[in-house]
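pasting for the record
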Amino acid sequence: MDNDTLLQTITELSHEFGTEKFVKAGGGNTSCKNAEVLWVKPSGTTLIGLTPESFVKMDRAKLGLLYTATPPAEAAAREELVKNMMAAAVMPETAGRRASVEAALHDSLSSTFVVHTHPAWVNGLTCALGGEAAAAKLFPDALWLPYIDPGYTLCMAVRKAIVEYRTVHGGAEPKIIFLTNHGVFVSADTAEEIRAIYGELESKLAAAYRETGVNWTSVEVSAETPDQTALDGIEKILRDALGEDAAAIAVSGRFDAATGPITPDHMVYAKSFFYYGCLTIDNLRAVKAKLGYAPRVIVLPNAVIGVGKNEKAAKLALLLALDGALVKQAARAFGGIQYMDDRSRLFIENWEVEAYRAKAAQ
């Protein structure tokens, strides 16, 4: 397959799997490759907005230097080194673009095409207490990994797991990789196979949800919302307490929102914890001081409100809150929701890569 055909095919796959059924905001990433070059989605962009010219072109030989590097033990220093090494692998034709942080993971798979997404109906499995056991029954040939910090650590863990998988499976690689509290990687040499694998994922999971009586397609949202007078008062309190962090809001009826961090994507756009409680200036300021950030989602008795520095950021916060509620609901089919632990949460909250993604999205 020539390079133009490769890029046209991965662009079509990016559009197909870049809808809200599979990812939200700038979530997910895609790639294609030949022996020398990896073309991967740029960081902070949307799958559905990609063109063949959008992809970051990377020298696989230079990217491969990551796998033999001895990175610093300290997380920030390690990720800075990795970021610089990845930047050095970007080829002159796309110089200045920042590749997805998971580029090295894409490179670790030998398949021509890789499509990584975070559907709520998949994360109902990957974010569930009983998800690993259920996946072993539903998808016995898939690879399941525990939660691992994104970036270099995840890449190296996946590479090791792939080597072990090949040993057990006669040299074959996993077509499906489930990442706990993260999402799914699907890899194949043709677009048709990518589509077929995702079709199998959806079909088997839909059957499991139906069998347990869990609604995996939508959450119940109250029709009631505050009237305009009440909203004016809410906006004033938010702006007085949070300043420019509450320059815009997006309003929904009440739904059963999450009470902790679900995946890195949810944290990027909606933060780890939502605000529950009496809405006062003092309370909001106290919560901001405790968390180290302004809450992005406010849960009231008759509304859920996304908050942001602009309208887009507020809408994204609410969108991810709704998605998180659907993941929480779907996870009931597999033992209930499993939130990220504090160590994992703090890594994401302090990771420069995710700060870059959040800024790019806004």
